[in-house]
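Researcher: Here's the sequence for the chain we discussed earlier.
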Amino acid sequence: MSLHIITQPNIHVDPDILAELCNDTEELGQVVLHFLYNAPVQEFMNIRIWPTTYLFDQHSPHRSELVHVENICLYPHWIHCFPGEKMYFTLIFSGLPKSCTVFDFIEVCDNESGAFEARGIQRNASDVYYLEMR
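Model: Thanks. This is the structure I predict for it:
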C-alpha cells in the first residue's frame, strides 16, 4: 500500500450547510474560568464548588452549565486551604450564546454562606477568563 499526501484537496461544501455548521460550532463552544483564590491570612478555610454553579447571560434567560472542574472539589467534598495559601482552580462551562456581551458567574447554593460570585463579566473573543477571589 502506498501513501499519497494531498496538499490541496478539492472539496465543495454547500454554503448553507457550512454556515449552519459554523454557527453551531460557536454556539457549542466552552467558557473557561481560571481562578486564583487567596485564603484569609488569619484562618484555615475549606472551599468547594457546587454543581449548581452557572454563567448567566445578562440579556437573555440563557444559563451555561458547569461541565468540568480542575483542582477544586465538587459538593459535598472539601479542599482545605492553609492561612494565606493561594489556590488555583479552573471551571469549564457550556457555551454562551453569540449575542451575549456581559454575563454573571454565580454559585447557586441557597443553604450555604460565602458562595462564589462575580457579576458583570465583559465577554471576550476567546471565552477564557482569569478571576481572583478573596
